Amino acid sequence: MKLLIVFHHNFDFWNVPLGFADRLRTDFPGLEVVRLSSYDRAEEEIRDAEVVVTWSLRPEQVEAAQKLRWLHSPAAAVHQLLFPELVHRDIIITNGRDVHGPVVGEHIIALILALAKKLPQASRFQQKREWGQQQLWEACPHPREIAGATLGMVGLGSIGRTAARLAAAVGMLVIAVREHPEKGSPEGVAEVLPPPQLDTLLGQSDYVALAVPITAATNALIDAARLARMKPDACLINVGRGQLIDEAALIQALQDKKIGGAALDVFIEEPLPASSPLWDFENVLITPHTAGLTDKQWDRQYALVAENMRRYLNHEPLLAVVDKQKGY
Question: Which end of the chain is more exposed for a tag (fewer CB within 10 A), N or C?
Fold first, then answer.
């Protein structure tokens, strides 16, 4: 059986380490493992591959892969893979949602604390060698405590559940919207609302964190009308995908001081263009799609792929299977 690993990313961190393939060869001696560092030979090598580990494929590559039965994407988001040639084939897709969940959940808490304690503004004063105590206090919203504040968590997947548990541990009240509220309230979540009650969550929350996949229902989920539902001192956090927010509407809301601020890790266009007005707001914290970065990333990915390979060979159900119809 052949497993093809194919990665080519401008950011070195997202290219699978050399040792990943070596570990698979050692742990699964009967497995033929081919690792490509570019897509130049992908269509040739994929023809007889039964398993593929990659970020993305083109439709014609999937059509060439007549033996393909399982595709693993290390990413949490797989919308880029859900084209008809893959959706309608008997190919299992798994993803790295449970790999990224814990570290991205931590990032949400870091962003909440940074916004509450006005760390971006303090950093700007530091760069100017200016003692900005008075200015930091006078600018609205004031520095504040997060204990007793309300976190509105949009999405209760691996990321949302981690963030909720950590937020509750530091005294925040967590309310959440999830697609299937009948699944109940995970640890730390005081109330779960169905999607039609998103506006209720927005009106009650001091911090709103987005951690849902991109689907037809979530594209531009936070638009001008939804931003208007937020408290005037509330902050919006996005660690999902840039398409969850109408960026033009967010820029307008920030200019008009309709919300207290934002912390953004993802954007519609990445890298975020230097011309974007988002760079200029003092109450906006930008992280360059780094919420999922951790030195444990590839060890966790390997553990997931290896366990799923064991299950695959034993004809057992795989972990982290994507529902291709729902898109996550």
Answer: N
